């Protein structure tokens, strides 16, 4: 039977402009990135959805390899509800195989217009430039296995759990072959994280689904980044992802920093050793943003097609 969820959680799901998506890496860690779910959900079927570009092949490959994902609805800015709370959805993602024009025109376009405003159109330039960005997007449905709702945005206090019972703590993982310590300047990374509005930590829980927890940067030193959380974090050591981001209305002027690294939880608290980083800052101008989005979508789709052709030849 589909999982049902309360009206309070549904108001957040349908009103948030952005959410954090976490998926599992081949090494058993978690990557967390920002997506724009634009209120996509089917409450009767018990699913929530987001969309992604076919040009983002690495994300789709990892989800195809391990479909267990999590969506964290954690931010109220520039959406359609001011209700406090935090909604964590966990389930097995089901990406569409190909773009569906009826879905794009009948479902995705109206929802995107509601959150982002009317799309740029024009046969002489914009329709061609943004073809891959708008038309080569596929929906990713997530049948809800578990939905956890905290009335408090920092996840303080006991949650309301719907669906599968809360998972137990995961075991500690073996340290990476290259070592568990920081591979980046932790103090510099911490300063960049602090400069953004939201910070989220993701790791794989005891049942194999990613868990996403709101955190704050409490300090940094040569040993790593100290994190603070209202929620209890699973003790032990494991691979984990970190995301910090900020955004403006219609996702114009958004900025993000992402890390993968090693998380240690002990009696001294949470210590994160960053291993990799990535980041971007989009221009606070819609025309410039769409020019960039169109370029990245075209480049990503070309790369994905070349990779697919190469895999077919090797097979």
List keywords for this structure.
single chain, about 325 residues, alpha+beta, Pnp Oxidase, Chain A, nine-stranded antiparallel beta sheet, seven-stranded antiparallel beta sheet, 7 helices, 16 strands, about 35% strand
Plain-language structure description:
This protein is α+β, with helices and mostly antiparallel strands and 315 residues long. The protein has one domain: Pnp Oxidase, Chain A, CATH 2.30.110.10. 26% of the residues lie in helices and 36% in strands. It is built from seven helices and 16 strands. The protein has helices at residues 7-15, 57-65, 101-116, 126-129, 131-135, 186-194, 286-314; strands at 19-24, 30-35, 41-42, 47-53, 68-73, 86-92, 94-95, 137-150, 160-163, 198-204, 210-214, 216-221, 224-228, 236-246, 255-266, 269-281. The strands form two sheets. Strands 1, 2, 3, 4, 5, 6, 7, 8 and 9 form a nine-stranded antiparallel beta sheet that branches. The protein has a seven-stranded antiparallel beta sheet with strand order 11-10-14-15-16-13-12, covered by helices on one side. Strand 3 (41-42) and strand 4 (47-53) form a beta hairpin. The mean pLDDT is 90.
Distance between the termini: 39 Å
CATH level 1 class label: Mainly Beta
Helix-strand category = alpha+beta
Number of helices: 7
CATH architecture: Roll
Question: In short, what is this structure?
Answer:
The protein has 315 residues and is of the alpha+beta class. 26% of the residues lie in helices and 36% in strands.
């Amino acid at each position: 039977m589909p999982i049902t969820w309360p009206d309070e959680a549904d108001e957040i799901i349908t009103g948030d402009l952005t959410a954090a998506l976490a998926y599992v890496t081949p090494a058993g860690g978690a990557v967390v990135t920002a997506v724009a779910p634009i209120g996509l959900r089917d409450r009767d079927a018990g699913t929530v959805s987001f969309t992604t570009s076919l040009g983002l092949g690495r994300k789709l490959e990892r989800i195809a390899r391990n479909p267990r994902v999590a969506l964290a609805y954690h931010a109220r800015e520039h959406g359609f509800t001011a209700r406090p709370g935090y909604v964590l959805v966990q389930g097995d993602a089901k990406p569409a195989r190909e773009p569906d024009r009826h879905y794009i025109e009948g479902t995705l376009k109206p929802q995107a217009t509601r959150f982002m405003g009317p799309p740029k159109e024009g046969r002489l330039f914009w329709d061609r430039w943004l073809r891959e960005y708008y038309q080569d997007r596929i929906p990713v449905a997530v049948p809800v296995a578990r939905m956890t709702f905290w009335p408090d945005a920092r996840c303080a206090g006991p949650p309301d759990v719907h669906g599968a019972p809360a998972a137990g703590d995961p075991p500690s993982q073996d340290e990476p072959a290259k070592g568990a310590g920081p591979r980046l300047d932790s103090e510099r990374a911490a300063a960049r994280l602090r400069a953004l509005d939201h910070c989220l930590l993701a790791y794989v829980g005891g049942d194999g689904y990613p868990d996403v927890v709101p955190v704050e940067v409490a300090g940094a030193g040569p040993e790593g980044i100290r994190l603070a959380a209202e929620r209890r974090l699973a003790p032990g050591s494991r691979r984990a992802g970190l995301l910090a981001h900020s955004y403006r209305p219609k996702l114009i002027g958004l900025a993000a920093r992402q890390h993968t690294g090693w998380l240690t939880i002990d009696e001294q608290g949470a210590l994160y050793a960053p291993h990799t980083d990535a980041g971007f800052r989009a221009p606070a101008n819609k025309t410039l943003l769409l020019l960039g989005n169109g370029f990245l979508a075209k480049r990503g789709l070309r790369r994905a097609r070349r990779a697919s052709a190469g895999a077919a030849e090797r097979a």
